Structure formats: structure tokens, C-alpha cells
Model the fold of this input.
Amino acid sequence: MTLDLKGKILGRYISSNINLIRTSKKIKVKNYGEFKILKIKSKKNKFKYNGMPGGFRMLSFKNRLLKEPKKIVIDCIKGMISKNKTRKKVIKRIYFIG
Done:
């Protein structure tokens, strides 16, 4: 199965195809840097803390979109799949093209 994200709204496109994503053996994602974000709620900052003093980092949504659009797509798919042991298997089957 191939997902083409060019010009699509990310959350709506993935939620309409989530059953196909769950059941297919290999998921290929094309044009993963060219999707649209509709809601402002989804433009959250990502926080990281490594446990050391001064190890707190904040990544804004714009920087994440430029540096790591693959992780944004994976986070969106993770949020829509049920939280059980098959979740890791589905995430491992995702391949990015291009």
C-alpha cells in the first residue's frame, strides 16, 4: 500500500486510511514533506529532557516540520492506532520513499 501525502491534510487522510494501514504488510509513504496541517492544536511543541541539568530541549513545530517530517507522520499514525502490542509491528512496517 502506498500513501501519497502531497497536498493532503495529514490527520484526515491518515484517519480515513487507518484500517488499511493496520492490515497491510508494507506501507510506503510518498511526499512526506508536502502535507498540510489544518488545526492549530496540532502545532504543539515537542519537549525533551535527558535527565541532566540543562538537558531540557524544546522543538517548535516549524523546526520539526523542516528537520524531521517523518517523525510527524509517525506520531500522527501512532496517535490513531490502539495502544497494544500490535502498535510496534505496524510502526515497523512503515517505509518512506523519496
